[in-house]
Structure prediction request, 187 residues.
Amino acid sequence: MSLSQFKIAHKLITGAGAIEQLAAELTRLDIDNPLIVTDAALVKSGTVELALCQLGGREYEIFDRVLPDPEIAIVEDCMRVYREGGHDGLIGLGGGSAIDIAKSVAAYAGYHGALEDLFGVDQVPRKGPPLIAIPTTAGTGSEVTNVAIRAASPLPVASMRWCMRSNPICRSMPRPLPTHWPSALSS
Prediction:
């Protein structure tokens, strides 16, 4: 019989109102100036505002240029914003792409070589900044894995060095689908 392992983030906060724990988690992780990694649609919809209300007066910056199936250039752009803003932690808020960009920046933050050097398993040389994932969709599972996927890259970034400080907060989204959706989606 062969054995396998599945590594996940070490803490999950789930349930209605879980987002209300954000300030306490930021304090616990000693994050005073997070970079919020998300997409423009979530900013426009007011979803990001729900998290902003829970920051407890902290400084923050929003990186809202995440696109589906993000290219490496988006990670590099987000990393530049992270460094120039003097941020001390990350909040990935959105679907798998936003969370994967935040995870990639966390891996890349403590490294000064090429991002491509980190592709593969356990290539991240040191722990990066703390990361909180707030998923707004169901399906990818990015909030609980130690893998970050980007479009057109041959290998993911996979390491427990940055995942060990991840603290996904699963807010009360996504809501159950309306009863007519499952049948519409199955065709």
Q: What stands out?
A: The first strand starts at residue 13 and ends at 14. The two ends are 39 Å apart (CA to CA). Residues 18-172 form a domain with the Rossmann fold fold (CATH 3.40.50.1970).
